[in-house]
Design goal:
It contains two helices and 40 strands. It is mainly beta. A hairpin with a 2-residue loop joins strand 10 (136-139) and strand 11 (142-145). The protein has a twelve-stranded parallel beta sheet with strand order 1-2-4-8-14-17-20-23-26-29-32-35, with no helix packed on it. Strands 3, 7, 12, 13, 16, 19, 22, 25, 28, 31, 34 and 37 form a twelve-stranded parallel beta sheet that branches. The protein has two domains: 22-231, Pectate Lyase C-like (3 Solenoid), CATH 2.160.20; 256-442, no CATH class.
């Protein structure tokens, strides 16, 4: 008994010591620190928490995160809202107290990693804006224009980084990352990302809402709105990327641009449970581009299932494949509109999809069913939701590459997907009990 008691005392002392080591830095009106730059970012340790409180005047400061947490004790940079208003970090004339070791001046508002990595870092509850080439950053040598490809978050070197509940707009790229092995396991969750791009050249297609290149990226429960210029609403060159439960709408170009990176020999992607809506005015009528644009093939399979895809133009092309060794696997998707399903490049197969009868699809392939009307609820709080009698209800297949567990909300977030009999086609599952619980629907 004495040995057990001594062991418990030592264990409690150990864990108390761990908690005592974690530090909290508070920034904002009436707090110990008035400015973000006063936080000793280059001395942060696992478990440290930086709280940035809302204030009326935005913080015009830039941050480098090049210290690492652990899986159990990440380093957290957390905005503290006031009456629902998130703290704003504004790139316009923003300065940084830290000196870069790898020079990317003009490319970031928050930079993760430098010559060293920033692993197990979490950024949440912040508005990031105005890191674009129409604005300037400042340092001791004067003001410097942001580059066209600047990022609200620029992930240079980091593993297991999470960006949660942030609003990112008016940057060159909302989020931009390097590739593996420097960047792996990025998670972007419940963020609102829109209005990013080249502010000097509105016809540029080189800057995007997000531009991701790492491995094992997960993007979920986000709302993507149109970029400011001709860039993609969502661009990825990653390996084993998962894009799920998002609402992706608008833009002059593609809603998803999933292309190649020369470092990856074969790169699959898993896109499921999303709503994708084409922009009303388009520079490019392709909605989903798969395979490559840099002279290399992604050489993998796009697993595309339980999505609702809304075309807005008579000449829409829903799936555009770049190379012959690229494959597309379609299951349980609802394609609504006109145009062509596919460009007849690569390999396409599918089961249990629903297509508007005005969408041309390969006659030699049985991909599902077609009709005049998918049977959406009229006037419901969530567009594109099936109602009683809809051909989408109970006509899906349960065998899909990954479990479909949630459904997206138009402004980001989601709620549990509960299958009643058989899985429905599209991003939503008709369930009267769940509807009444969440929305008071009968």
């Amino acid at each position: 008994m004495k040995r057990i008691f001594l062991f418990l005392i030592l264990a409690l002392t150990f864990w108390a010591g761990r908690d005592a080591c974690a530090r909290i830095y508070e920034v904002g009106p009436g707090k110990a620190l008035e400015r973000i730059r006063s936080v000793p970012f280059d001395r942060l340790e696992p478990g440290d928490l930086v709280k940035i409180y809302y204030r009326e005047k935005p913080y015009q400061e830039r941050i480098i995160l090049r210290r690492s947490g652990t899986e159990e004790e990440p380093i957290i940079i957390k905005g503290i809202p006031s009456n629902g208003r998130l703290p704003i970090i504004d790139g316009k004339f923003a300065g940084a107290a830290q000196r870069e070791n790898w020079n990317h001046r003009g490319r970031w508002l928050i930079k993760i990693g430098d010559d060293v990595t920033g692993d197990y870092v979490r950024i949440e509850n912040l508005v990031l804006r105005n890191a674009n080439n129409g604005n300037f950053t400042v340092d001791s040598k004067g003001k410097h224009e942001y580059t066209a490809n600047s990022g609200g978050v620029f992930l240079v070197k980091g593993k297991h980084v999470t960006i949660f509940n942030c609003r990112i707009y008016a940057c060159g790229n909302g989020i931009i990352s390097a590739y593996a092995p420097d960047v792996t396991h990025l998670t972007v969750r419940k963020c609102l990302i829109y209005g990013n791009g080249d502010f000097q050249n509105r016809k540029s297609d080189q800057e995007h809402n997000v531009y991701l290149q790492g491995t094992h990226t997960i993007v979920e429960f986000c709302r993507f709105g149109p970029p400011i210029a001709y860039g993609q609403t969502f661009k990825d060159r990653g390996l084993n990327t998962i894009i799920r439960y998002n609402w992706i709408e608008g833009g002059f170009n593609r809603q998803l641009d999933l292309v190649d990176h020369k470092e990856y020999k074969q790169a699959h992607a898993f896109v499921y449970g999303n709503v994708l809506v084409q922009g009303q005015i388009s520079h490019n009528y392709n909605m989903i581009h798969w395979g490559g644009d840099a002279g290399h093939s992604r050489s993998g399979t796009l697993y595309f299932f339980n999505n609702t895809v809304i075309g807005k133009h008579p000449v829409t092309r829903y799936i555009d494949v770049q190379y012959s060794d690229c494959k597309v696997d379609l299951r349980n998707n609802a394609f609504i509109g006109q145009g062509k399903l596919w460009n007849y490049r690569g390999t396409l197969k599918g089961l249990h999809n629903w297509l508007s009868k005005d969408i041309q699809s390969p006659q030699e392939k049985y991909l599902g069913i077609s009709g005049d009307n998918p049977g959406f609820m009229i006037g419901f709080k969530i567009p594109y939701f099936p109602y009683l009698g809809s051909a989408l209800i109970n006509n899906g297949i349960s065998h899909v590459p990954l479990p479909v567990e949630y459904m997206p909300l138009p402004r980001g977030g989601g709620w549990k997907r509960s299958v009643v009999q058989a899985m429905d086609i599209g991003a939503y599952e008709f369930n009267p009990v769940i509807l009444k619980k969440h929305f008071g629907s009968k």
